[in-house]
Amino acid sequence: MMSEDRLDGDGADVLVVVPQRTVHMDELFPGAKPLTDASPARHKQEILAACVMGLSTFSGGMLEGYISPALPTLLLDSLEASWLGSLLLLGACLGALVSSWVISLGRRRAVLASALPRITGWIMMAAASDVYMMYGGRFLSGVSLGIITSAVPVYISEVAHSSIRGALSCVVQLGVNMGIFTMALLGTFVGWRGLAVFGAIMVVAYFVGTLFVPNSPVWLVSVGRQDAARDVLTHLRGPDYCVEYDLQQIISTKVNQQTYTWKDLARERSCLMPLGAVGLVTVVNRCSGYNAIITYCATFLHQAVPAVSEYWAAAGVTLMQVVSTGLAVLLVDRLGRRKLLMASITAMGIGLATIAICEAAVPSGAGGSWVAVLAAVVYVSAYSLGVGPITWVLVGETFPQAAREKATAVIAVLNWFLAFIITKTYFSLEAVAGIAGTCSLYASVCVVGLILVYFLVPETKGHSLSEIEAYFTYSRHSWKGIKSKHSVALNSILEQETGGSDSYSTFQASE
Questions:
Q1: pLDDT class for 303, splitting at 50, 70, 90?
Q2: By the number of CB atoms within 10 A of the CB, which of 59, 81, 209, 290 ranks highest?
Q3: How many secondary structure helices (H) and strands (E) does the chain include?
């Protein structure tokens, strides 16, 4: 089937794999059935696991959406309001810093561990007798948020088959948006203490649900539990699927990888390239003003459009977030990441520019009230259709297996630090530049981001995690030479030997 030769190079042996004849998958794995069907019935266990993880991000969305309905009744000044909105994100930075270590102990364990600081934070907010107790509750629950946003995208990307990985990774943002909408809707009827109690109940719900989902097969292989990984893959893919195919691919990726240090993230191409691409999308995600607008949604709409009921307008805006993210789930594996991402950034910029024009034309905001509200709907809908969910899709699928915990932690810290800065500075920026100037600044981020995304972010739709890793590891001009000298991932060998297309070349051409 194959011959192996060893070449000496720089004091080390290089294994050369040379195909000698065509080999079919059935010959290696009798009864193997490639799982290309993306219908829900074929992936029900993977979908169930992703939805349970979505409960934790739903709870996180409730944290992000809590301030919008609670703030008008808390009677705080702008300084206190800015700290109350931003301390959650500062706590998330701390959670993201420790998330690498926590995730390395197990993705599922990380989600379970996040429940303790989160429920403690909600209880502190529900029982708060002064603003400082609210501050403490927000910061503590933020630590949990930082852990969740690192662990959940990694877990989903590692349990989902490549045919539905993009859709299931959108569950992260779908859960967040549903949580924000739930808070906006309940806030029209329930006070800030009642909202905090409901938030604590949802923590219990996702903790219990997480107890019943399996560990990540990639993590199980990384700790030497290959038999357990095989059992998990059988549970997830179904008994008629050849799990050995996926298992050997995970094992081969682990065997061929080096151990990454924190310094390696900044000097190894396999880490630096995806960090740059995902970091760019994260900067556009946060610096386009989403956190400020959604955290202070009711206040923002009241300032921008005095003639409109801020509570119901906020509920309508956040409902559109949920609908848009639902569309992203349907489209991300059909249209691809790049198309949705660039369309999203374009529409966000148009929405922000429209709000700025309305405010500049009519300083009171009343004259263009419905235009401004519709522009806000366009902005949050576009965010939820593209930039919001795709950020977490890329976080879960672009980093090398051996560096996934550390690289994800870096992006999570960047994500929450930028969110903290944008949220904390919103009132100061709005006081200096007005809503028109603030939205113009956010729109300019979208313009610059669109240009950079076009040149720097590749399409990852339909490619395995190993293929995506190979894309970022090897330069485009040296892939053929490298493939002739090194053993490649199992699935790429099979595709080449069965007459399939060169997976790396296809990846390059699909950009």
A1: low
A2: 59
A3: 25, 2
